[in-house]
Specification:
678 residues, 29 helices
Length: 678
């Protein structure tokens, strides 16, 4: 129950924050950016804004109080006991002042769209998005009959995610350390997982704690892209198609897959029986570009929701400048050196948006970078550029403060790297890669650019900024993570693809209607098939099944906290990780891609498991702060080292054991010696 109250308070506090920070937001959906009337429910903007604002503020406050109370028995108990009543009080006071005392709930009559047909359309759209989000989240992560089922398409990323969640709900991970590289700093944006861990701590079962905020974030992202599309185009169909193109990616993968089927094979049967993600670009078999990403990385939808909200509020400055250019023609002095091109119209907006975007850094850093890239391009030809600068400076200051607090050394190591993950990292090789990856989308956007207004063309260039960044800069050792920048660009550019199709349909000529239908099919069929593949993989293939009441999980919970480091085989997800165990060296990819020195720890793991004497073993254990040593089947068959199990048994007491023969799992407590070590 407390977990549900937490989520409700996020909406309530978010409402209060937006009431003070963005007083004009309630009538923001009445007109397009070029000042034309539209029928659009403000709730499609307000509810996501309230949610992200409330989550960011409350979650950070709970974390900070928990950090200050880290030396107590239960930091989260103290943090929630302080912050939740304060949040309720803040909402109550604001509600009293705004609604009861002053009766100034901004334009309350505008909160319901007056057009009944539009309400029905929006209701159907919202219902479809909620259904899609619920299917994706609950089909990949759910509890049934005291067992947790994790889908085969998400279990890899869920290994560190669940480890981080349980390090808070079961442990005391303050100062925070990475669950798959325990004992050092935290380089991974973990705050969404912290929120989920806190929700579980407050009583929500782990699937509810993870799925509910994930679904709300998913719906928020789609709602905001719909609002942005209507603000730009003024057309409902453009908004709907923008959501469709958001969900179902454009790609040639479907057509190339069919073309490679052997002669005589039943195409429909082959499509039905296939359970692998299709595509011939690197890592498409991971489901890197489709809806599975939002199942795998639950914090991504939350991050881009904040990004879309910030863009929605900043883009009017661009339109005002283009109106000036249209009226007075192009004047270099007036565009770049006039007072109105730099003056601050409202100091409240840039400060609030800077705080919002800056506090997102450890929820999803890529969304922050992607947003700043787009804002930078937009700011060049916008009015009130100082507002952009203020937001950017606040964002950077908060991001740097967080990075220095959580990370030892540099947060990122940017370097020039052309070509992303294209096989041939040349200009033509990259064009070929994008052609195979994005299908007809680039051609559609080129057409939209040609026939669009100047403001549309400039927005297309701004929305391309994250994609260009992805193909020229690598921030980490694993450039593959740049795929999120490409996805962000494709989602935003999809608005203009939708607008082009919408304009073709408006011509009401058969040839244009047929062409529009063909474009829609070609832009969505791969994504739709990917969606069916997500469902097939998670229903037909074996899931990871974890016992909610497993003795090993309970042992970890009862006998360790987040400061106790477990030496194990390179685990991904199992009952030990599910118990919140902090691994010295989990599966190397997670830590390596985050920037940790996994090679060094591989060497230490080898030395400890191969140690020949109790003294050698105990010295290594103490130097690396190992509390528990796990010996199981994976250690016994390892090709990386020759396990000296006898030495471990002779040195430390076995405090947990299960299984038989070579499948036996034994856990040794390094604080309890079996022999005197000289």
């Amino acid at each position: 129950m407390l977990g549900i109250i937490y989520l409700l308070l996020c909406f309530g506090v978010g409402w209060a924050i937006c009431t003070y920070a963005f007083p004009g937001i309630y009538n923001f959906t009445c007109r397009t950016y070029d000042n034309k009337n539209i029928y659009l429910s403000p709730y499609l903007l307000l509810l996501p804004a309230w949610f992200v604002s409330g989550v960011l503020s409350i979650t950070w406050l709970v974390y900070l109080i928990g950090f200050l109370a880290r030396n107590t028995a239960s930091p989260l108990t103290i943090a929630n006991a302080i912050i939740l009543p304060m949040a309720l009080l803040f909402w109550g006071i604001t509600f009293y002042i705004k609604r009861i005392k002053n009766n100034t709930l901004d334009d309350e009559k505008l909160l319901v769209c007056k057009d009944s047909k539009t309400r029905i359309k929006e209701g159907l759209l919202l219902g479809g998005i909620i259904l899609l989000g619920a299917i994706l989240m609950w089909s990949t992560f759910y509890v049934k009959d005291e067992s947790l089922y994790i889908g085969v398409t998400v279990f890899s990323d869920f290994s560190p995610h669940i480890g981080m969640i349980r390090s808070f709900s079961y442990g005391n991970n303050f100062p925070t350390s990475y669950s798959h590289f325990a004992g050092e700093d935290i380089k991974y944006h973990f705050m969404f997982q912290f929120m989920v861990g806190n929700l579980e701590f407050l009583g929500l079962r782990i699937d509810y704690a993870f799925n509910i905020p994930s679904i709300i974030s998913f719906v928020s992202a789609f709602s905001l892209i719909y609002v942005l599309a209507l603000k730009i185009t003024g057309r409902i169909l453009s908004g709907v198609l923008s959501c469709v193109f958001f969900a179902f990616r454009s790609s040639k993968a479907f057509f190339t897959y069919i073309s490679k089927l052997p002669k005589g094979v039943n195409i429909w049967k082959a499509l039905w029986e296939n359970t692998e993600f299709i595509g011939d670009t690197p890592h498409e078999d991971w489901g890197l570009w489709n809806l599975n990403v939002y199942c795998n990385q639950r914090h991504l939808a939350f991050g881009i929701s904040v990004m879309f909200f910030v863009l929605i509020l900043f883009i009017p400055h661009l339109y005002r400048m283009f109106e000036t250019i249209k009226e007075d023609k192009f004047s270099f002095k007036k565009i770049f050196f006039s007072r109105e091109s730099w003056e601050i119209k409202s100091i409240r907006y840039p400060i609030a948006l800077g705080l919002l975007l800056g506090s997102l850094s450890f929820f999803h850093g890529s969304a922050v970078i992607g947003c700043l890239l787009v804002l930078f391009v937009i700011a060049i030809f916008s009015k009130h550029r100082l507002e952009f600068l203020i937001t950017a400076l606040i964002t950077l200051i908060l991001s740097i403060l967080q990075s220095r607090s959580f990370i030892s050394g540099q947060a990122v190591s940017p370097k020039f790297l052309f070509g992303f993950i294209a096989e041939n990292k040349t200009i033509f090789g990259s064009i070929d890669y994008l052609d195979r990856l994005l299908g007809i989308l680039p051609l559609v956007i080129i057409a939209a650019f040609i026939i669009g207004k100047w403001i549309d063309r400039y927005l297309i260039l701004a929305f391309l900024a994250p994609l260009i960044f992805a193909f020229t800069v690598s921030l980490t050792v694993d450039v593959t993570v740049n795929h999120k920048f490409i996805m962000i660009s494709c989602i935003l550019l999809g608005i203009f693809g939708a607008y082009l199709v919408n304009r073709m349909c408006e011509k009401k000529e058969l040839v244009y209607t047929i062409a529009a239908g063909i474009i829609i099919i070609m832009m969505t069929i791969t994504g739709i098939y990917d969606f069916t593949t997500v469902l097939k993989k998670n229903s037909r293939m074996g899931k990871i099944v974890l016992n909610m009441k497993d003795p090993l999980t309970q042992f970890v919970r009862d006998n360790s906290d987040s400061k106790d480091i477990f030496l194990t085989a390179p685990y991904t997800i199992n009952q030990l990780v599910f118990g919140g165990a902090m691994l010295y060296q989990g599966h190397q990819y997670y830590a390596w891609s985050a920037g940790y020195d996994t090679d060094y720890r591989d060497l230490i793991v080898k030395k400890i498991y191969e140690a020949k004497t109790p003294k050698e073993l105990d010295t290594l254990v103490k130097e690396n702060n190992i509390r528990y040593i796990v010996v199981d089947y994976d250690n016994r068959i390892s090709s990386e080292y020759n396990l000296n199990e006898e030495n471990i048994r002779a040195t430390y007491k076995c405090v947990y054991e299960s299984g038989y023969d070579e499948w036996k799992m034994s856990i040794f407590d390094t604080k309890v010696l079996e022999t005197d070590i000289q």
